[in-house]
Amino acid sequence: MDRLLMYSKFRKKTYTVIYQANTKAGRLFDLILLGVILISVLLVMLETVADFNLKYHSYLITLEWIITVFFTIEYLLRIFSIDRPIRYIFSFYGIIDLLAILPMFASLFFTGSNILTVIRALRLLRLFKILNNPQFTSQSLKLKRALIASRGKIVVFIYFVLISTIIIGSIMYLIEGKESGFTSIPMSIYWTIVTLTTVGYGDISPQTPLGQFIASFVMILGYGIIAVPTGIVTAEINKYNQNKNNQNQNPCISCDNTDYPASAKFCPQCGDSLENK
User: Fold this and answer.
1) What are phi and psi of 84, to 5 degrees?
2) pLDDT tens digits for 81-97?
């Protein structure tokens, strides 16, 4: 009976630490886990540096195995502490956690497969669980609503940009030709996108005066194009904030609704009078 009670307490405590990020122990565990993930990814990157790997290869492998054992124990504890382990095993995070430990074990049979441990970087997605508090949730919801509200304008803007790149690319193909590297319209469109986004690889460049003039125009246009989506989303965020400021924060007595203008006399959700709110 005592053993069963100890087993139950240990299982419950393990669940609290691993799955409940809103507790002190859970938040500490998640921070340690993220730190180990970052170290693991760093080790994999350092292993690809020839001189560093040649000098410290044995240390890198030892550290990677230590981290792999840590991840394996964590994975097993997640299965052990949850009521429905199958649900976790086949969940998105469950599959990512499994993929994080398989490459090192696979390296025992297949040479070089340990380089796939860089997949562990996907476990950094668990950062969102740590940020799951009212402040961050409120800000993320605000950004989500702004993106949804502005999606129509952004789609129209992207359509305009695509049409513009096709037209400019076609014109540059006719002006510059194959001699300047504009060997086809798709290649010219590629140059237009690279120039429009201010990346400027320099692998293709116009040689004629007219082509250089158009290129200058495209470069200037690129700065405006970069600013437009930001302005659209920012305007929607400001609009959302203004609407929130104009709303009455006193809830309706009947349905607790607060989403109504300060001048409203009746609740838009239930229809009851707001006179005596």
Assistant:
1) -120, 80
2) 998 899 889 988 889 88
